Structures are given as C-alpha cells and as structure tokens.
Amino acid sequence: MLSQALWAESQLLSGINRLAQTLDCALLGGERLNGCGQNLEQYAESLGIEALPTQTTFGELPQTLGRLVPGIVSLTHNLKPAYVFISGRRGKQLQLLLPEGGNWSCGIAELAEFIGRNRGCAPDPGTEAVLLALGLQGKRLARASHLLIQQQLAAHPIRGLWLLRPHASQGLKVAAKHARLGRYALGFAAAHLAERATLIAGVSLLGYAITQGIWGISLVASWLLIMLSHWAFAAFGQTCQLQLDVRVGVIVKRQLQHSALRLSAEAHAKKGPAQLLGQAMEADGLQNNALPGVFAAVNAGIDMFIGLGIALFFQQWLLATLLVAFLLASSYPIIQFGQAYRGWASRRTQLSQLTIEHIQGSRTRLMQSSPERWHQDEERQLQQYWLASVQMDRYALWLQALIPSLWLISASAILCIAIMFSDLDIVQLAALLGVILMVWQAWHSMADSCQQLVRSWHSWQEIQDLLRQNAQAHLAPLDTSEPQVSLATLAVNQVSFGYAANRPILRGVTMHLQKGQQYLLQGESGSGKSTLLALLAGQASPQQGWLLCNDRDLQTLGHQYWRKKICWVPQYHENYLFSATLLFNLLLGRNWPPTQQDLDEAVTVCDKLGLTPLLNKMPAGILQSVGEMGWQLSQGERSRVYLARALLQKPDFLLLDESLGALDSATSLRILASLQTESAATLLCMHP
Predict the structure, then answer these.
(1) CA distance 180 to 10
(2) What value does the CA radius of gyration of the chain take, rounded to a whole number of Å?
(3) Alpha-carbon gap, residue 387 to 365, rounded angstroms
(4) Would the pLDDT of 177 be above 60?
C-alpha cells in the first residue's frame, strides 16, 4: 500500500535530509521548518540542494513523475499534510523512501492514480453506469473506465511537486556527477571505438570475400551482422554525444547564471557593460566550441590510434614513425594558433568595448568632438583587429590544409616504396591505403577540434572570475526559529569602508535609524553618501564596524530578507527600467504574475506620486510597455517610477539617493508629504 510510503509533516526535514544524501551534496543542516512551499525550498537551499516547484496536469502526470527523480510530492492523508519522497527509478518503477528506513518500489501509473485520487480528480459519477449499460464487464470495463477518466481529467492541474538537484553553489564537480557526465563520456568513447572496429572488420571481411572469391549465406549473414552492429554503435555514440552536449550546456549556464547573480555592485561597476557582454559572449562560445571540439578530438585520436595499430600490425615501421612525427610536429602550429587567437580575442574585446562606449556617448561625441575625430579610434582598432585576424588565419591554414596535405603526400610515397620493395598482398594494400585515408580525414578533424578547443580554453579563462563567485559564495543560513517580523531599528556602529587600500571613504560612522521616522543625509560630492547607502542596503560589506537590524546582522537575517526590508533607490544613472510593461517594472519587488490586489496598490501608489496623468496619457495605461524599446519616460517620470517601485516593495527602511533631484519643488513637496504617511523609515540623501 502506498500509505506506508507517506511521510507526516513532522518528518519532512528527515525526509529531505535523506533525499539530499542521494545527491552527494555538502549538507549544511537546519533547525526547524514551519509550513511548506516556500519554506521547503529555503530549507532545501540551506542543505545545498535546489527544490524546483513543478506543475503539471493529470494527463501528463505519469511522464512528469518519471522525470521527478529525485523529487517530493505533497499530498493530504487523513486531512493532514503528507509527503512522498522519490529517490530513484528503475524502468517503470519508482523507488520511494519509507519513514522507517529503506526503499519501496511503486509503479509510475499506480502513484499517478493515487495522486489523482488524493487531489480530488474524481470521474463523472455516470461514467460507470454508462459502461455497464453497454454490457462491458471485467477487464474490459476497468480498461474502458480508466481511459474515460484519463480523457475527462487530462487538463486537471496538479501542483505540489518538487524536483531536487544540487544547488549551483555546490560547484561543477557535484553538478557533473549528478548529471552522470562520466558515464555518457565513457559510453561515447567506447561506442566510437566499437564503431571503428566493426567498420574495419566489415570492410576486411568484404575484401577477403572479393579477393578469395568465397561467397555464401553464412559469410553474407556475418557481414550484415557486423554492419548492423556498426550502425547500432554509431547511433548509441550519437545519443551519448547529444546527452553530453545538452547536459554540459545546462550545467555551464546554471553555474554562470548563479555566479552572475551573486556579483557585487562593486564588481558590476568595475566590469562595466562591455566586459560583462564580452563574458556572456565567451560563455556562449564555450558551450558552442568545447564539446564539439572534444568529440572531434576523441574521434580523430581513436582513428589515429587505430591507424597506428594497423601499421604496426603489418610491420610498416616507416609509416608508423611518420604518423608519430606528424603528431609531434603539429604541436608547434597549435601553440602558435593559441597565442594568435589570444591576441585576436583581446583586440575583439577592445573593439567591442569601444563600440559600446561610443554608442552610449554618441550624443556627447556629436556635440563636443570635431567631425574629423569621430572615427579615429575605430579605424585604429579595426586595423589592429585585422592584423591579428591575418596572423590567426595563417596558423589556422597550417592546421587545416598544410599538415593534412603533407601527410597524404608523405604517406602515399611511403606506401609506394612499400609496394616496390615489399611483398604486400591485396588485403595489406587495401588496409594500408584505408589507414592513410582514415588518418588524412582524422587530421582535418583534429585541425577543427584544436581550433575549437583553443577558443574554448580562452573562453574558460575569460569567465573564470565569474565562476569563482560560486566558490566564494556561502549560502545564507535559514533562520526558522521564530517567525520573521518587520524590522524596527537599523544601527550603524563605527563603520569604515574604502574601495582602495589605505584610502577609506568612510571612517567610524555611527548612526541609529528608527522605523517610522524621516532622516536627511547631506554631504559634498565624493563624501561617501552613496557608499553609506550601499552598505546599509547590503550591496557592500563594511571593512570595519558592524550593521545590525533588530540586533541581528546581515548573515543572520539573510541577504534576501535584508534587501527586501531595506530598500535602496540608487541615483538616476544607476537605476533601470526594463523593456516590459510599467506594471512589471513597478512590481519587481513582488511575485509575478500579479494579483488584483497588487494591481490596485500599484495604481494607488502611482496616484500618490503624481503619476496618474502619465497613466491616462498612455494608450494601455499601467500595462503600457516602457523602457528602451517602449514608451519613453522623462527623467522626472522615471524618478517617480523608481520611487513607486520601492514603496510597493513595502520595506521597513527606505533609502533615497538624490531621488528628488530631477523633480520640481511642488512635486518634491508632494512626494515628501506622501512619504510621511508611510510606516517605513526614510533616509533621504542629497547635496546641501
């Protein structure tokens, strides 16, 4: 019975811990969990795993359960929450964890039917009566009833499913092990080796039959069996290659996304949009070049190994020596191509940075710079880029054309010498000729793979600093010992901070903010006002001193909760409107899609900040697309949208960095009056 595999809500943490052990994650541990859903996902993250909520329909539930390994299913048993933990799969059987220990096998269809009944997926009461009236009985009745139920309830939504996988912070090694990359890589190499072996065996058998004039049913059947095996190995190798390509791509993208989201504001400012764009392009290049290069290199290496083995088997020492010499000599153009590609990529990055910079500053250049100087930098950078391209293409030509051609000429000459001075039969001649052509084709594949691997290695070096964010990032502990409440105090004690060594911007800053109060922070340009707000918002960490909210630091409360309750509205040039609807930009701090209450509150806040005329002017109102590709807002309108976005987040502390600088005095006074009605503490930063 499936009831023996149900876990009570009080056993939820034990079940998650047992399921996490199957993922080989470095468990961090937790104390207590209140409720499920979002807290379940947070607790799983604190263990170093990621719980992905999954939604499906009753008709697709069996397929979803087959992929939900390992996973968690939320149910209701005797009017109480219960859970099913799926630890593995064997064919059409799922392995379920038992609360008392061990596993229990359950059919996918059986579990899907149990979940459907538990979720209220009841068939039409008249269905069975209709079937009985048609004269169906026994197995035919059960079969027809099952099919009708599937048809009636196919679109019924099924929620409360979670797929577990290692968190991106666990690193590439854990992710690769979970994705079983080693198994697929070994399968690919073995399949290619078997493919080549069966091809050689089939060709040899066919050549033997032709030269000896021996034909028969058994020989033809053997040849067909060998060729069928060859095609089967080829198909299996392609399947392994496809699985590797998809799984490695997913792992790399997840790691990069996780790392990019953990970049600090300081790192973003140092890199700039051009360098970040370059790293995104390099990440895409890594995925497009790495695996194809590895596959081509493995194929070429196996072909050359087979060729060397055949040459040694027929005692063609000169041909074997030539192959080894070519392998050693090809290292020089490969190294030179790598160095040339590094220089070419550097020029390309500089050219991209220059292009983005000139696009951003096009108006300034048109107004301030003389026309004859508009394109001087571009022309110089293009000339250097062209020279680097010529040098890289020269070594690429060596790899793609020169080395394969020299091999074909040299190996053919050696074969001619062997024919003249050795007694080669027709089988040996055919085998050696096949070796020469196979290795010639392998040189072409090796040339392509070397270029792809060089590009991949360069891309890997470029994104290393992003991937290091995973190694340096620590998951914030989940504090569930008491319900999280609103923050009442924000204390700063002897805080010091500086972007350069021995050049602190802030020294010994001490202040105390109380919820519901309004504060004004004034200072000259460069005095550290924005830096202090960044520290308060958790965008940077103080080098000395500490920050406390309700007598708890950032690590205790967690980055997500800290930034939700302490909202920073940066200066105009550091804030952004996405190319989406105005409602989407207003509700960035809330869940999406929005509820009717979210929409009503957004309209109310816009009215308080004087944005109602803007909404009336837009054809689609609050659903009008804005941003770079949509409705263009003035600087004052953007400033009020940024402020409305912060208020809709409902923070306990609101940090405004010169947010009223682009507004007229009447609008500023109206906004200040509306802020006094808010319960959040407001810290307004502005010039004297």
Answers:
(1) 33
(2) 34
(3) 28
(4) yes
Taking alpha carbons only, the member of 577, 573, 584, 580 closest to residue 642 is 577
Contact criterion met (CB below 8 Å) for 37 and 72: no
Position 92, amino acid: K
CA distances 406 to 269, 414, 449, Å, are 52, 12, 19
Residue 510's nearest CA partner among 538, 542, 550 is 542
Residue 70: asked if its preceding bond is cis (omega within 30°), the reply is yes
Q: pLDDT tens for residues 320-348? A: 999 999 989 888 888 899 889 888 888 88
For 346-366, write each residue's pLDDT tens digit: 888 778 777 777 776 666 766
Long-range Cβ pairs for the range 12-18 (8 Å, 24+) = 12/36, 12/40, 12/83, 13/43, 14/99, 15/72, 15/83, 15/85, 15/97, 15/99, 16/40, 16/43, 16/44, 16/47, 16/72, 16/85, 17/47, 18/85, 18/87, 18/97
Give yes or no for residue 25 having a pLDDT over 60. no
Lowest mean pLDDT among 161-165, 513-517, 608-612, 630-634: 630-634
CA-CA distances (angstroms) from residue 72 to 34, 165, 190? 17, 11, 36
At 244, list the tokens. Answer: 């590797």
Classify residue 410 by burial, with Cβ atoms within 10 Å: 0-12, 13-18, 19+. Answer: middle
**Residues ≥6 apart with Cβ < 8 Å to 607:** none
What is the 3 state secondary structure string of 230-255? Answer: HHHHHHHHHHHHHHHHHHHHHHHHHH
Rounded to whole angstroms, the Cα distance separating 450 from 287 reads 15
pLDDT average, residue stretch 220-246 = 89
pLDDT tens-place string over residues 244-280: 888 887 887 777 777 766 666 666 666 666 666 666 6
| Edge-first strand listing for the sheet containing 506-514 | 506-514, 489-497, 544-549
Q: How many CB atoms lie within 10 A of CB 335?
A: 12
The tokens of 391 are what? Answer: 């040098």
DSSP helix/strand/coil, 165: strand
User: How confident is the model over 77-131, as pLDDT tens digits?
Assistant: 777 888 889 988 888 889 898 888 888 888 888 888 788 777 665 556 666 666 6
The CA distance from 641 to 529, in Å, is: 22
* CA proximity to 82, closest of 15, 22, 30: 15
Helices (H), 119-216: 127-133, 138-152, 172-178, 181-212
Q: Are 513 and 653 in contact (CB under 8 A)?
A: yes
Which tokens sit at 508? 């010994």
Angle at 658 between CA 652 and CA 661, to 5 degrees: 130
Q: Would you state the pLDDT for residue 457? A: 84
Does residue 9 contact residue 80 with C-beta atoms inside 8 Å? yes
What is the enclosing helix (H) or strand (E) of 164?
Answer: strand 157-166
